[in-house]
Write a structure and sequence with these properties.
heterodimer; A: alpha+beta; 4-stranded mixed beta sheet; 12 helices; about 45% helix; globular; B: alpha+beta; 8-stranded mixed beta sheet; 10 strands; about 55% helix
Chain lengths: ~400, ~375
């Protein structure tokens, strides 16, 4: 056997022995393992699955072992991912630390920062949130006004963030703060890390049209942040933020949370009325499903091509915007179609059923997909400029 | 974004170079303005055969290169970008694939001749205005050692001047593939007629009226399951290759529109600074990238004889129809009034693309197939 075949056999055998059966069942949103200081596990199996995967470095398989990873190469990572998918294993840990902060720290962090923060992310001990948007800095993010005043050993941070995902549940925040007020807007921002339990930090969940509150307003009132907790140089925050955003967009665009779950075709097959030839009678909805199916297959191919491209060592850069744009627009279509397929059944108030599985919750929530992480319009502007090189 | 193998990259580079120099859009325009029955330049066709394009999917033993369908898609994409008229799909893809699947003496006798461009073989499948390859009215009956074939075929790509024809017909309730020599066997008989079908893209199409067509016994290539398998494989490959040609058209329309938006001035600025236009082209770009990925996967799946090859090729053809329609329409709109003129090439792209959309089934045909396949 080649090395890679041996690896595959080992992975398969290990997963067979160690992945708890409960962790191979389909998962509701409330069964996602987010980790963190105050996280209460939904089951022993969920806790064991996280611990055993983290011990092997497989929550962050490509990170170096010193940072809590397993040092896998691209081919090995794909094998691990394929084998996990093969047994329908749940993700042991969902984490903004893994998908967003980690890559930024690996690229811009000091060695001490990497050794301090990354292993805790890998083990799911610290749950992170992202302090980017402000009430007056949405699409024009670089105009943000939260300030960090130099006070010797500290930056004293004051201001307000908004749309901070799960700020009320996070332990630490990675936060964009204006530390150089006299510099041009893109040059005056620094990237700070601090504990959400610091004095002066408060959060307030925002109730959305879906009834859920995944986002918060986050307030900083003279929060003292040690200067050692800056990533990169002062004023380098915008570069780091942009780098991190490409990872976030890649994640939103390619998320299994978007494209996994309920499959439109199998659901239509299951619930819609058919004629004697096994064909859906509602021919217009059927045509819409056909249209969607072709777009979905094309997007899946696009994602697969992207993964191959990245495994070969290429950076996605601005091209993460195309996945984010197509993936989120497609998800909105998908959720609308699922509503049509279920008809009145999908309209029963989510409060009366299960909010986690209610179609209407997902449909309403999906409307935010093309706003969060950069709107569709911002994505198209990025592509116009960076890829098409249209004049500006 | 696709990472091509070194062989594929070399093939692509040589195709791009050859076509830019010898078969740019202006070459097609010249053909259109001085029309011939063939609709392509026979000398250029021989040259492309010399470059190995006609034998891409044939075995080395029979004069081919075994480069495969992914490689054929790269060529088709460039043919689309340059609007090059050449009997690539008919002879090198559809006919060669059928013979390759059937094997035996037909492949041994004709494979090398197809690959060298010495013989052009066209395939007669369609009978009505819409593609329905499994609803064949053309009938074959046994007549001693021979067969009698009767029926009407249309939309036969490169049917005018083809050296041989592969014809689908029903024989004793089963699909059969027949090998006809249109000159000797068939059209010496005054009961059969071949007529050019002049379509909006100015390429070579024919309709055939077969009556008392009396080929020799050896004219049966295959029947039943073998015939069905060979036809299905050819259609599967053909769909993905046509989709690749449409992708080429879409990419060319996008590239030309970007160029135009970067130079055309109105209101004192390049019109490319306007977001209303930028976003439309960026959206088109995204659609093209998804389409390209799907087509590439479909072609590779055909090469690998993968289980999902058929599903992917139907999806690729449907998606290509949607995206290339968007691309050709956006190109005209972005160019404004000048985009509507015959002097610009967008009409040529739009007309060629519309024919390709219909050829081997339009988007609705393929979506319907995909839905039936999923039992919805």
């Amino acid at each position: 056997m080649t090395d890679i075949e041996t690896f595959k056999a080992e992975v398969r055998a290990w997963l067979a022995d160690n992945c708890p059966p409960e962790m191979r069942l389909p998962m509701n949103d409330d069964e996602i393992c987010w980790g963190g200081r105050d996280f209460s596990f939904a089951s022993d199996a969920q806790r064991d699955w996280l611990h055993i995967m983290a011990a092997r470095g497989w929550t962050v398989p490509t990170w170096q072992t010193a940072y809590g990873g397993a040092g896998l190469n691209g081919d090995q990572q794909k094998i691990l991912a394929d084998e996990l998918k093969r047994i329908n294993a749940r993700s042991p840990l969902e984490s903004f630390g893994i998908s967003m902060l980690g890559p930024a720290l690996l690229e811009f962090g000091s060695e001490a920062q990497k050794q301090h923060y990354l292993p805790k992310i890998a083990r799911g001990e610290v749950r992170w949130c992202q302090g980017y948007s402000e009430p007056n800095a949405g699409s024009d993010l670089a105009s943000l006004q939260t300030k960090g005043v130099d006070d010797g050993e500290f930056f004293v941070v004051s201001g307000q963030k908004i749309w901070t995902s799960y700020a009320n549940k996070a332990d630490w925040i990675f936060c964009l703060v204006r530390t150089e007020p006299d510099e041009p807007k893109h040059k005056g921002i620094s990237f700070l890390l601090f504990d959400m339990k610091s004095e002066g930090v408060s959060t307030k969940p925002i109730k959305l049209i879906s009834g859920d509150s995944p986002f918060c307003e986050t307030f900083f009132d003279n929060v003292k942040v040690p200067k050692t907790q800056i990533v990169g140089e002062r004023g380098q925050g915008w570069s780091i933020a942009k780098y991190l955003l490409t990872h976030e967009r890649e994640m939103i665009g390619s998320s299994d949370l978007l494209l996994g779950g309920v499959d439109v075709c199998s659901h239509a097959h299951e619930v819609m009325k058919k004629d004697k030839t096994d064909q859906i009678i509602d021919s217009i909805t059927r045509a819409e499903i056909g249209n969607f199916l072709v777009d979905e297959m094309a997007f899946n191919a696009h994602m697969q091509m992207t993964k191959t491209y990245m495994r070969a060592g290429n950076q996605l850069g601005a091209r993460s915007a195309e996945l984010k744009y197509i993936g989120t627009e497609l998800n909105k279509t998908r959720q609308s179609l699922l509503m049509s397929i279920d008809g009145a059944d999908a309209l029963i108030s989510a409060a009366k059923t299960n909010r986690q599985t209610a179609k209407s919750s997902h449909w309403l929530r999906s409307k935010g997909n093309s706003i969060e992480g950069g709107t569709s319009e911002i994505m198209l502007s990025i592509l116009s400029k960076a890829i098409l090189k249209l004049p500006s | 974004m696709e990472i091509l193998s070194e062989d594929h990259q070399m093939l692509l580079d040589s195709a791009t170079g050859y076509l830019a120099k010898n078969q740019p859009v202006s070459a097609f325009r010249a053909l259109r303005d001085a029309p011939t029955d063939l609709g392509y330049d026979p000398i250029a066709y021989r040259k492309m055969a010399n470059l190995g394009w006609m034998g891409l999917v044939l075995p080395e033993k029979f004069g081919g290169s075994e480069f495969g369908f992914r490689a054929a898609g790269l060529i088709a994409e460039q043919l689309g970008r340059n609007l090059t008229a050449t009997p690539f799909l008919s002879s090198a893809i559809l006919s060669a694939t059928i013979l390759n699947e059937v094997g035996g003496e037909f492949l041994a006798n004709w494979g090398e001749k197809i690959a060298s461009g010495e013989v052009l073989v066209a395939v007669a499948i369609d009978e009505t205005a819409k593609h329905q390859p499994n609803d064949i009215q053309t009938k074959a009956t046994r007549d001693g050692e021979s067969y009698l074939i009767a029926g009407d075929k249309n939309f036969v790509v490169d049917g005018i001047g083809a050296d041989r024809l592969i014809v689908t017909a029903m024989l004793e309730g089963e699909l059969a593939l027949f090998w006809l020599d249109p000159m000797e066997t068939c059209f010496a008989n005054s009961c059969c007629r071949i007529e050019p079908q002049q379509m909006i893209d100015h390429r070579n199409y024919a309709s055939f009226h077969l009556e008392n067509c009396h080929p020799s016994g050896a004219a049966l290539i295959a029947k039943g399951e073998v015939a069905q398998y060979a036809l299905d494989k050819a259609l599967c490959a053909g769909r993905a290759v046509v989709a690749a040609e449409q992708l080429g058209i879409a990419r060319e329309c996008l590239a030309r529109s970007i160029e135009y938006l970067s130079t055309r001035k109105q209101f004192g600025v390049n019109i490319g600074v306007f977001q209303a236009l930028q976003h439309r082209l960026a959206h088109l770009y995204c659609e093209i990238e998804s389409t390209a990925s799907l087509i590439s996967m479909a072609l590779s799946a055909v090469d690998e004889n993968a289980k999902n090859a058929e599903v992917l090729s139907h999806a690729a053809k449907a998606k290509a129809a949607k995206t290339s329609r968007l691309a050709t329409e956006e190109a005209v709109q972005m160019h404004g009034g000048i985009g509507m003129t015959d002097e610009m090439d967008f009409g040529l792209f739009m007309k060629r693309n519309r024919v390709l959309t219909e050829l081997l089934g339009d988007a609705a045909f393929h979506m319907d197939w995909l839905l039936k396949n999923k039992k919805i």
